[in-house]
């Protein structure tokens, strides 16, 4: 995997001994829900994990790279993007540590990265081999359950993002997403499964732009807001937005 062979100009430092702060960060990761720092340290040592720190703007991995080691982003932010032949970037997701990267890809029949990973900030990453991940799954069912949940959640996230690509404006994306969510939850009072930042990633827009549109739709009495939850006040107006 090119990730492990890249130019060291992109790397601040790499070492087999993982700093204590990385174990603390991993304890807040979805893969290690329910684990103590002591348990995480033991698992990482047995799996021979490797720690790498990257400078801001470093290319952590390229699209098409063989994905043989699971990336666990412990600190910082990575941008998952697709660069076309003209050099245009399509941002797929902001990955904010601590979070695993591409859990579903690691065990796919063609384990290659579908996106380029670039460090938006200084970032720290722990990697573990495919065999190491299997060993941890066999050793502790909690990790296996967390891993499968993360892989499933990421697939749902990307499927929703692809579905919403057909809508051109942010208001249309909100309308399409909220109407579908209302249908699935069987209520006009919506419990958003994502934070606003994650929802902005699903829509492919910035969080400030999304917040602005949501506030406008609340002011127009199309939606109402209660904390982080929203309710559909006028389903007809949302449906009309989809027809524009």
Q: How do the helices and strands line up, and which of them pair or pack?
A:
Layout: E1 11-15, H1 20-26, H2 37-46, E2 50-54, E3 59-61, E4 69-75, E5 77-83, E6 89-96, E7 99-101, H3 103-106, E8 116-119, E9 123-129, H4 130-139, H5 141-164, H6 170-185, E10 189-190, H7 196-203, H8 207-219, E11 223-226, E12 229-232, H9 235-242
Antiparallel strand pairs: 1-2, 2-9, 3-8, 4-7, 4-9, 5-6, 5-8, 10-12, 11-12
List keywords for this structure.
12 strands, alpha+beta, 244 residues, DNA-binding, Jelly Rolls, disordered N terminus, transcription regulation, HTH_CRP, 5-stranded antiparallel β-sheet, Arc Repressor Mutant, subunit A, 2 domains, 4-stranded antiparallel β-sheet
TL;DR?
The chain has 244 residues and is an alpha+beta fold.
In CATH terms, what is the fold-level topology of the largest domain? Jelly Rolls
As a whole number of angstroms, the C-alpha radius of gyration is 20 Å
Distance between the termini: 46 Å
| Net shape | globular
Helix share of residues? 40-55%
- Give helix and strand order, one letter per element, not per position: EHHEEEEEEHEEHHHEHHEEH
Poorly predicted sequence stretches spanning 5 or more consecutive residues? 1-9
Q: In the CATH hierarchy, what is the superfamily of the largest domain?
A: Jelly Rolls
Q: How many DSSP-defined strands? A: 12
CATH architecture title of the largest domain = Sandwich
Write down the overall mean pLDDT. 89
Number of domains: 2
Name of the top-level CATH class of the largest domain: Mainly Beta
Largest sheet: 5 strands, antiparallel
Enumerate the strands of the largest sheet in spatial order, edge to edge or round the barrel.
1-2-9-4-7
